[in-house]
Amino acid sequence: MRTKRLDFIENYIEQEKSVSLDTLCEQFNVSKNTIRRDIEELAKKGTVEKVYGGVTWKPPAADAILLPYEQRNTVLSQEKDAISRKAASFVTSGDVIYIDTGTTCLNMVDYLANVPCTIITNSLQIYIKAAPHPNLQVISLPGTLNRSTLSFVGSEIPGYLRTYNITKAFMASTGVSIENGLTNASADEYAVKKSVIQNSQTKFLLSDHTKFGKFALMTYCRLNEVQHIVTDLLPEKKYVDYCKEHKIAIHLA
């Protein structure tokens, strides 16, 4: 419960930009001691800054959002696994799919072992996971290994991707917003992700609830370009309304 409350408090402070401790206590029906402990946790995270009598939003530098792969992989691991399982249920025999490098996508391979399909990826981790399964034909994109994302990147990838007909692309994102779309913090990854979007018939966004309302340095896809969103919690009303308007299906894991 506390983890979810921290997420709600963080989102509230982001929306209000500056808020008093009394307002937070009233808004979330908790004591001042509780709200102080919660604010202390968020301050350690670096997204808020304590001021006299309250707190202000402290947006992270866009180029500092991307954490090392090992650190990202431990965050919300159960939720990400559930999202991967749900996403895998949309893959059918004979599909040519792209699986992105994000940690939210990684466990899809665990639920595809018995589905004969082709997986295209630039993720070293996904390649290693898929290799032992004879039903999975694996195509790795060329390039140089980016050690922070454990993915292959390079200027030759966009041209290489144009040779394949991708039926379904399963994409991750550092942040998701109506204004900025699907964003990421790595210039190398941006070029790959944008090319995948351009060469895919159906696009799935795999995103846990903490990514909504956030954005990073570069937009690789507008939100209305995806047809499906797979997430762990229903996003706030404005996203639900936007998805209805643009015929984007939301699937809860």
Topology:
Elements: H1 2-16, E1 18-20, H2 21-28, H3 32-45, E2 48-51, E3 54-57, H4 69-72, H5 77-88, E4 96-99, E5 117-121, H6 124-130, E6 136-140, E7 144-146, E8 151-153, H7 157-161, E9 166-171, E10 175-177, E11 181-184, H8 187-198, E12 200-206, E13 218-221, E14 228-231, H9 237-245, E15 249-252
Parallel strand pairs: 4-5, 4-9, 5-6, 9-12, 12-14, 14-15
Antiparallel strand pairs: 1-3, 2-3, 7-8, 10-11, 11-13
Helix pairs in contact: 1-3, 2-3
Keywords:
253 residues; alpha/beta; three-stranded antiparallel sheet; 9 helices; 15 strands; 34% helix
Q: What's this model, at a glance?
A:
With about 250 residues, the protein is an alpha/beta fold.
Description:
With about 250 residues, the protein is an alpha/beta fold. About 35% of the residues lie in helices and about 25% in strands. The strands form 4 sheets. A 7-stranded parallel β-sheet has the order 6-5-4-9-12-14-15, with helices on both faces. The chain has a 3-stranded antiparallel β-sheet with strand order 1-3-2. Helix 1 packs across helix 3 and helix 2 crosses helix 3.
Low-confidence regions: 61-65
Number of helices: 9
Strand order of the largest sheet: 6-5-4-9-12-14-15
Main sheet?
Answer: 7 strands, parallel
What string gives the helices and strands in order?
HEHHEEHHEEHEEEHEEEHEEEHE
Helicity, as a percent range:
25-40%
Q: Structural class per helix/strand content?
A: alpha/beta
Distance between the first and last residues' Cα:
19 Å
User: Per DSSP, what share of the residues sits in E-state strands of 2 or more residues?
Assistant: 15-25%
- How confident is the prediction overall: mean pLDDT? 88
